[in-house]
Automatic annotation (TrEMBL):
It holds the Pfam family LacI. CDD domains: PBP1_sucrose_transcription_regulator. Residues 13-69 form the HTH lacI-type domain. PROSITE patterns: HTH_LACI_1, HTH_LACI_2. It comes from Sanguibacter biliveldensis. This is LacI family DNA-binding transcriptional regulator. Keywords: DNA-binding, Repressor, Transcription, Transcription regulation. One of its GO terms (molecular function) is transcription cis-regulatory region binding.
Amino acid sequence: MSTAGSSKHGAPVTMRDVARLSGVSVSTVSHVVNDKPGARIGKDARRRVQEAVEQLGYRPNVLAKTLSRGTSAFIGLVADEIATTPFAGQIIHGAQDEAWKHGFVLLVANTDGNAAVEDDAIAMMLEHQVRGILYSSWYHREISVPEALHQTDTILVDCFAHGSGLPAVVPDEEQGGRTATEELLAHGHRRIAFLNTTTPSPAQTGRLAGYRSALEAAGIGFDPALVLPVAPDQGGGYAGTSHVVDSGASAVFCHNDRVAMGVYDGLRERGLRIPDDVAVIGFDNQDVIAAHLRPTLSTVALPHYELGAAGVRMLLGVDPAPDDEPRLVACPPVLRHSV
């Protein structure tokens, strides 16, 4: 039986070695090291086995324990690109911390969106009888579920699949858009532009809905002329700056931090100061951008860490899994100096 310890001859330490040293049967050693419930073992025998285990450096064969229990101490996480995405990588961090808290280890497979690699990764995890699988994408979207995921408990993280029957946990995009707009309203701004993305997504529709609901709650009519779809990057923000200035807006809510970075460039070229002339708020809290712009960018964070942690809790039954609609996780504000 393969172990982490080795005998004096270099061979793996086995239960038989432990039994020989402690003067008990192999079955007694098995009961002690596996902490078998109801096993009737005297205190002295248990002590001798434990001392022999420590002296020899014996480690149980994890695969054998997995096969006997029908499950393992592993949770799988299959992702498209989040392991290589700085801010979305927090999903892994959150899932890993939560898994460890409950005595599980996270097995991560980053597939780079390759379907064949994805199928192989899921098959490998099923062969190792993982407790379940978290399936995640690096941005919030609807997905097509790989058929193999229906062979084990699965939670979708930062993605969803209507009609699949699989529980999902996603960011609350509408609440995030409302929070960003409310922050600008709280600073006295009444004419607020919104540079939204041209890319269809839950973020596009949800953040716009939040923007509109915050204005409505403040008694401000929605003006479609203040909303401009732009490319979701620095170039899009830079191109949209003229629209913001020409609209007479005193503040702008940007679809993401990269758009906000472009707005910074455009306003600076026009000799306008942030936040004195135009206040700016972003979305995503990409620290490499938001914390290093001058002035530092106020934004709304995507709750990637909590998405990963919540996915593990749902998988393990610590939190109930939703039946129909995805569970929404709040997007918190991160206030700096641009508002």
